[in-house]
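Q: How do we represent a protein-ligand complex in a form that can be generated token by token?
A: Start from the inputs.
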Amino acid sequence: MANQYDVLGKAPSLEDLNKLSSSDVHLTIRGLNAGYGKMEILHNFDLTVSKAQSLCLIGPNGAGKSTILHSIYGFTNIFDGKIELEGDEITKLTPAQKLSKVGIAYILQDNSVFPDMTVEENLLMGGYIKDKQDEAYEEAERIFQKYERLRNRRDQPAKVLSGGERRLLEISRALVMKPSILLVDEPSIGLEPRYINMVFEILYDLQKNEKKTIILVEQNAKKGLEFADIGYVLVSGQTAIAGKGDDLLKNPDVGRLFLGG
Ligand SMILES: Nc1ncnc2c1ncn2[C@@H]1O[C@H](COP(=O)(O)OP(=O)(O)O)[C@@H](O)[C@H]1O
Ligand SMILES: [Mg+2]
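Then emit the structure tokens for the protein with magnesium ion bound:
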């Protein structure tokens, strides 16, 4: 069926994707067909991301952006295709294995802080995986050192946090396991504008200073593409355009369809 997104054209070639992420490849997805139950949402989907690179997925509601993150983390049915981390296949690992063995963390889209637990208790929930508890405690200390906003509220119930601080806690909870890849679903959703910049500054620091690889879904396409090194525009479970964030911001079709321009 024809629709307004048809102007965006056909899927970029694997060669095009690889050019955007040419050095030190961290994660690849090849020919992925995946979905929920028997329903296929992603069709022959490819992705390449380098170490310490940030990739933003944009596109209309229901395009399958969250499903890409779910597939990387192990929440979907994978019918076909391969996911590799530094050349090792991880397609069928469980979420717990993704987190503890290969260092992929998923930051929930929904408000997932427990309001009556303290900030510290919430943070330590991120280290629930038994064999890494000592490391998790050490990492939690490091996080308190780094983020004064959390340190000051360490023993208070999380419900006292502002929206922005809550999002910081959600991100920090994922950091407790010292992941190398962060999957971030709509970090700006539900936040007041003044906190949105704060969240992107935190992600920027994690990418630039802690060398995390970041795969981000963002409905605020402008913010997402300004932040990310590269972007994929997803339509109906397939990539319609891939490019550098700056180039996508200048692309007239992207502007008209996703940037309100
Ligand atoms: N847990 C689920 N079970 C069944 N279908 C789902 C589930 N999550 C998402 N879907 C469906 O998958 C499609 C893609 O959804 P999603 O990846 O959430 O899109 P986006 O994040 O781009 O808005 C939609 O048609 C949605 O209804
Ligand atoms: Mg989504």
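The first strand starts at residue 25 and ends at 36. The chain is about 35% helix and 25% strand.
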